[in-house]
């Protein structure tokens, strides 16, 4: 049987078709789009209709590659960027553009919610997570406080992948995994935390969709789309999930002590856990996953954006960037970068900006600056990995996904910075692959012919052994020192109000 996976990321839509029996991807299509130009620092928004248009295009192109085999598709799964606020009116139309995960304009509202419930530590005790600007909850409070007319129009609150599922099925619901990224869920009990919801607005609870298990279906593909896509029979749409939840499946991260590292628009490091493990410091998030277990996750906001800025600055294409960074020795001759171009989530500094530190006449050149940026974003992400190991996770290797995983040079930097072997996946679009695998799993459960998820994953999810790279002790020691300097400089500048 064939299953379709759709992933709507921050800047790219992907669709792929998986032959489940053979574990082979038959078609894969990508299409890029952009974020609405920020009207002031910290704002990041997109029009939800753009996701629909992009998803429709990549699906149609994917299906065209299949020819008559498109009629073998039995299920669809959807992955999408987490946390985004999709507020629908009485006609099920968005009341405004969606505020995205990387929107930090809600920092004041996040702080207000932490304070209202006794501080971050107390909120962790109550829900499993402290409140950060990226979550959906402060976006809702921001909307109420800044655009009351739009807030009053809200009838349904959805997340990006929920909105895609609504387009596919006309069913409005929310599964535990993505819901845990709203900040409104007690992730240990998988129940809405009503005091927090009521604090934002006494009518908000009635606008939240029904919570569903992540392992169930969202519904059936509506007839109009089934005809337009020329598919046959009833097509199941699985619950799907947030991109990190589906990327966990797409990297085989469905058992303890596997760590995935995503090098995409954001940087994420995450690991499956069988029982909820809340970080008492609030630096790592605890989310429900797409298998009705949990993920512990660290997220950084500046990966692709920082790399892209270097490319624009020096007018380099990707091969040139790879060459320049690869030919520059580790440590960039003492140049250290704090890459907080959009603020940062790990550490939680939503108003921060970037810093080049240690510039000299020797290292103030394109190659050293590029190397320092790649090292800088990697070291920030590696702090999340370090925190995971402190909480008891003991990985044997890092499984890399996202666009950055295709870079031989970057894979080596990741292994050296993290001090752990790193390997890329044969299918770099792990979230889209995970969505297709999840759809196949849900289809079996619904049809009464369940297949063990681990079996589907073993067949479809493969590491690319030729990409494996081991850390060098000398380089890791250097990066450990640089990472400590990066954290210390961050703390000193932030405390002094200069960041």
Describe the structure.
By secondary structure, the chain is an alpha/beta fold. The chain folds into two domains: 2-246, Nucleotidyltransferase, domain 5, CATH 3.30.420.40; 252-424 and 469-499, 2-Layer Sandwich (Nucleotidyltransferase, domain 5), CATH 3.30.420.40. Helices cover 39% and strands 19% of the residues. It contains 17 helices and 23 strands. Strands 1, 2, 3, 5, 13, 14 and 15 form a seven-stranded mixed beta sheet that branches. Strands 18-19-17-16-22-23 form a six-stranded mixed beta sheet, sandwiched between helices. Strands 4-7 form a two-stranded antiparallel sheet. The longest helix has 25 residues, at 366-390.
What's a quick, concise take on this entry?
This protein is α/β, with parallel strands linked by helices and 499 residues long.
Compile the SSE list and pairings.
Layout: E1 2-8, E2 12-19, E3 24-32, E4 45-46, H1 48-66, E5 73-80, E6 86-88, E7 98-99, H2 107-116, H3 120-127, H4 136-146, H5 148-153, E8 156-158, H6 160-169, E9 173-175, H7 176-179, E10 185-186, E11 191-192, H8 194-200, E12 210-212, E13 217-220, H9 223-228, E14 236-238, E15 241-242, H10 243-250, E16 259-263, E17 267-273, E18 285-288, E19 294-300, H11 304-314, H12 318-326, E20 336-338, E21 355-357, H13 366-390, E22 398-401, H14 408-418, E23 422-424, H15 430-446, H16 453-460, H17 473-496
Helix pairs in contact: 1-6, 2-4, 10-15, 11-13, 12-13, 13-14, 13-17, 14-17, 15-16
């Amino acid at each position: 049987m064939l299953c379709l996976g759709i992933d709507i990321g921050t800047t790219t839509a992907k669709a792929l078709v998986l032959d489940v029996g053979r574990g082979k991807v038959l078609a894969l299509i990508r299409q890029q789009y952009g974020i609405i130009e920020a009207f002031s620092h910290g704002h990041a928004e997109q029009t939800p209709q753009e996701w629909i248009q992009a998803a429709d295009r990549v699906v149609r192109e994917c299906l065209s590659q299949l020819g008559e085999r498109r009629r073998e598709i039995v299920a669809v799964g959807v992955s999408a960027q987490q946390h985004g606020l999709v507020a629908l009116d009485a006609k099920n139309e968005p009341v405004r553009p969606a505020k995205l995960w990387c929107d930090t304009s809600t920092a004041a509202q996040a702080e207000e919610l932490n304070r209202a419930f006794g501080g971050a530590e107390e909120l962790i005790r109550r829900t499993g997570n402290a409140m950060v600007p990226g979550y959906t909850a402060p976006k809702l409070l921001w909307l109420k406080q800044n655009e009351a007319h739009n807030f009053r129009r809200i009838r349904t609150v959805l997340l990006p992948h929920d909105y895609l599922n609504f387009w596919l099925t006309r069913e409005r619901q929310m599964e535990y995994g993505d819901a845990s990224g709203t900040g409104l869920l007690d992730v240990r009990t998988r129940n809405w935390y009503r005091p927090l919801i009521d604090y934002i607005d006494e009518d908000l609870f009635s606008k939240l969709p029904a919570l569903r298990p992540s392992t169930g279906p969202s519904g059936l593909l509506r007839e109009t789309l089934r005809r337009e896509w020329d598919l046959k029979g009833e097509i199941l749409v699985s619950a799907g999930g947030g991109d990190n939840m589906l990327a966990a499946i797409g990297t085989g991260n469905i058992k303890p002590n596997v760590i995935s590292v995503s090098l995409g628009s954001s940087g994420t490091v995450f690991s499956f856990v069988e029982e909820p493990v809340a970080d008492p410091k609030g630096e790592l998030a605890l989310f429900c996953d797409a298998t009705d277990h949990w993920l512990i996750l660290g997220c950084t906001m500046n990966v692709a954006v920082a790399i892209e800025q270097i490319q624009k600055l020096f007018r380099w294409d990707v091969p040139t960037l790879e060459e320049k960074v690869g030919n520059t020795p580790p440590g960039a001759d003492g140049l250290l970068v704090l890459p907080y171009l959009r603020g940062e989530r790990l550490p939680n500094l939503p108003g921060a900006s970037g810093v080049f530190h240690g510039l000299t006449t020797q290292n103030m050149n394109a190659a050293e600056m590029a190397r320092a940026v790649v090292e800088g974003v990697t070291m920030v992400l590696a702090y999340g990995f370090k925190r995971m190991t402190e909480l008891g996770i003991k990985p044997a290797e890092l499984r890399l996904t996202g666009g950055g995983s295709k870079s031989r040079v970057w894979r080596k930097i990741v292994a050296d910075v993290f001090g752990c072997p790193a390997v890329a996946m044969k299918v770099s679009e792990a979230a889209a692959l995970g969505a297709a695998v999840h759809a196949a799993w849900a289809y079996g459960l619904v049809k009464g012919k369940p297949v063990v998820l681990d079996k589907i994953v073993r067949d479809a999810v493969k590491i690319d052994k030729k990409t494996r790279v081991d850390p060098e002790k000398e380089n890791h020691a250097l990066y450990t020192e640089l990472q400590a300097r990066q954290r210390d400089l961050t703390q000193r500048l932030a405390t002094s109000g200069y960041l």
